[in-house]
Amino acid sequence: MSQIGPSGLDDRLSSDDVFVLDLRPAVDYRTDHITGSYNVPVYEDLRQGDTDSLDEHVAEIPDEQEVVTVCKAGIVARKATDHLNDRGYEATTLTGGFTGWRHYRERTILYRVAALLRRFLP
Fold it and tell me: CA dist 36 to 3, 42, 50, Å?
């Protein structure tokens, strides 16, 4: 499965080749989200293994761009990524989900330590 980290996504946000699909509940999206992302609030359904709700929104997802799926921590987004890849989309999961994105954006100590460890661990 394809994954992208917060810094990699940040580097690509200014281009038109990525579509950020936020799967979190609408209330979470309204509170804070990645600028330019699109919300399809199917998190709870996907968490339960129900992909039908995501299928109801595929017409809203462009097929000419890579789709980066975002959830709370990255686990549910992996389900969406797999499902979209099976449907012919080029889909990627944001590692760490929106929580990881927030830590990256705020440059928290947690993010800085994790980034340092990733440099030295395989």
Answer: 19, 18, 26
How many domains, in total, are found in the chain?
1
What number of residues does the chain have?
122
pLDDT tens, position by position, 8-22? 999 999 888 899 999
* CB-based contact 63:88 (threshold 8 Å): yes
Nearest CA-CA partner of 22 in 2, 14, 30 = 30
The CATH number assigned to the domain holding 22 equals: 3.40.250.10
The whole-angstrom separation of Cα 40 and Cα 61 is: 10
Place of tokens 């947690």: 110
Look up the pTM and report it.
0.90
Task: Using DSSP, state whether 92 is helix, strand or coil.
Answer: strand
Q: For the segment 22-78, what is each residue's pLDDT rounded down to a tens digit? A: 999 999 999 999 999 999 999 999 999 999 999 999 999 999 999 999 999 999 999
